Amino acid sequence: MRLTRGEKIFQAFDIAILTTFALLCIYPFIYVIALSFNDGMDAMRGGIYLFPRKFTLENYRRLFEDRRLVGSFLISVFRTVVGAALGALVNAMFAYGISKSDLPFRKFFNWMIIIPMYFSGGIIPYFLVCKALGLTNNVLVYVIPWLATPFYIMLLRISIKELPESLEESAYIDGAGYGRIFFKIVLPLCLPAMATVILLGGIAHWNDWLDGTIMMSNSRLWPMQTLLLHILQGTDMMSFFKERNLSTAGGMIRKIRITPESLKMAMLVITVLPIFMIYPFAQRYFIRGIMIGSIKG
Length: 297
Description:
Blueprint: H1 5-36, H2 40-43, H3 58-65, H4 67-98, H5 106-118, H6 123-132, H7 150-161, H8 165-173, H9 178-189, H10 191-207, H11 210-215, H12 224-233, H13 237-243, H14 252-258, H15 260-296
Helix pairs in contact: 1-15, 3-15, 4-7, 4-10, 5-7, 7-15, 10-15, 12-15
C-alpha cells in the first residue's frame, strides 16, 4: 500500500520516538555491564559509557568466591522453578473448580478471590501468620504463601470458560472423572494461559526480596535479591571484604581493584541475566495468554 506524505512523516516520527525510548531502556543495562567488567579503581575515574576501558573478570571471581552467593542463587532457582510450577497448578485447580456453576458455595469462593485483589492484609499480619505456621527461617516460605494468586486464578478461569462444554460432556459419557478431565483435557488446552502464569510467577519469585528480608534472620537462607539489596545498601559489604580477608593491610590493593561499586554492578548483572535469557523463549506464550484475558475480561 502506498503511503501518503503525511503518513510517511508520521511513520518516521513514530520510529524515531520508539527507537529513542528503546535506547533509553537498554542503555542502563549496557552501562552496568560495562562497569561490571571494568577494573574497580579505573572505573572511579569515570568516562565509561558503553565498553569496559580496563577489562577484568575480578569482580565476578570475587563474588563467586562467596559461598552465600552460590547458596542464594540455588535458593532463587528453587523458589522460581518449584514455586512457579506448583503455583500454576494450584491456581489452575482453583480456577477449574470455580468455573463450575454447580460448585457449592461458589459465590463465597469467588469473593475470596476478588477481595484480596483490592485489599491487602499488610506485612505484619502476613509475618504473624507465617510465624504461626513455622515458616520463618524455612525455605518453604518462598513457596507456600505464593501458591494461590487471585489475578492468576481469574486469568485461568477465563481461559477454562472458553473451552467448549461438549468436550467435558463427552468425557463424562466415556466415564472420566473431574481429575482425569482436568489433567487430560483442561490443562493441555489451557497451555498458553498456564505458560503466562508460570512466566509471571517465575519473574515474581525471582525478583522478590521481601520474604527473605522479613522472614529470614539467617543470611544463608536469603535469595539472590535479598543479598543484592544488602550489598546495594552497603550493609553487607564490610562482611564480604572481611570474609575475603580484604580488610587487612595486605588485602587493601585487591580491595581497591574491586571496590564496592564494581561488586554491586557485577551482582546486578548476575541477578538479571537469567530472566533476560528465559524471557525471549516464553514471550509468545505470554502475549497469547494475556490476550485471552484482555478479550474475555
